[in-house]
Amino acid sequence: METATPTSIATSGSIRPLASNLCCWVHVEADERRHKVTGLRDAPVKDMRWVPPGAFRMGSEDFYPEEAPIHRVDVDGFWIDEHPVTVAEFRRFVKATGYVTCAERSPNPADYPDADPALLVPGSLVFHKTRGPVDLRDPRNWWAWTPEAFWRRPEGPGSNVGGREHHPVVHVAVGDAEAYAAWAGKELPTEAQWEYAARGGLDGAVFVWGDEFAPRARPMANVWQGRFPWENLVSDGWEGTSPVKRFPANGYGLYDIAGNVWEWTADFFTPRHDADASKACCVPHNPRVASPDELDASGRIGGHIPRRVIKGGSHLCAPNYCLRYRPAARQGEAIDTSTSHIGFRCVVNV
Question: Are 80 and 249 in contact, with CB atoms under 8 Å apart?
Fold first, then answer.
């Protein structure tokens, strides 16, 4: 199934960039407040959880092709944020550094040679619920490039984050997430770290809480109920993003690791996982796809732009379109992209 967050939207022969230019893919050096990890008894910073070292079966062969094959992976222990980075946390970063996100910058025309110059303005991609059933093969039916949309104005001009200080921050491209992580003395998790932590010790389970979607009819994550993208029954109490920690934690004490917002990882996207190791001695240890060697050669719009893996699904994931609120689920998102349903969390490696 085609990604729910396309790299760009073609309209009348032009290309609308979703967030900003490729120069936003940068690293910012951490300042003097970079945290030093001195031991495992206490978290290096507040609100982080320890994930012990171990091995697990990564991926799935029951849902989407990019999740296959199932393969064994071994990871070292690490600390991970117990919830996605919130609006309030990101605001402190911006206040301390003066950082300007990709969505607040004008795209570089050289990166989008076929784009209408009038569209090369700061902005981001915003979801709009449709009035009725639409063709699910075309994400343009529910995504709209919105000038001046960014993390402080998540729906565009006239909106704000008042009352959403504890919601996950959105409209952050991967460069923005890496800038925050460096400032905080952290990193983005690798895809293997993220999935291992999300499983919470339930190796092979469908969801981060087990195999049943709603045990005892209890909503376990902020996801879409009803027929996407026009009918949301809101049976979990939230139609958009929700405050962090409103749903049960997984086995490692992590909140919102499924649903609410997608989360950036450090890995570049590949269309499939590597095959399982033939011998136990050859199981990958701390694997990471560190370079965008395999770009999208399908000819689709934006295929020349490197993509990173996003994990966890979001409040827009529904069984009839994007059943990806599962630990094995993965998608590739362009590094120039920010949207109203992608956020991030960080790790500290020891």
Answer: no
Q: Angle, to 10 degrees, between the axis of helix 174-183 and the axis of helix 87-97?
A: 70
Task: Dump pLDDT digits (tens) for 33-78.
Answer: 333 333 445 778 889 999 999 999 999 999 999 999 999 999 999 9
CA atoms within 13 A on the CB side of 313: 25
- Cα separation, 198 vs 30, whole angstroms: 27
We report the CATH number of the domain holding residue 304 as 3.90.1580.10
Q: What's the pTM value of the predicted model, to 2 decimals? A: 0.89
Count of structural domains within the chain: 1
pLDDT value for 118: 84
Residue 113's domain comprises 1-350
* Nearest to 126, CA basis, from 307, 332, 281, 339: 339
For 32, counting Cβ atoms within 10 Å of its Cβ (0-12 exposed, 13-18 middle, 19+ buried), the class is exposed
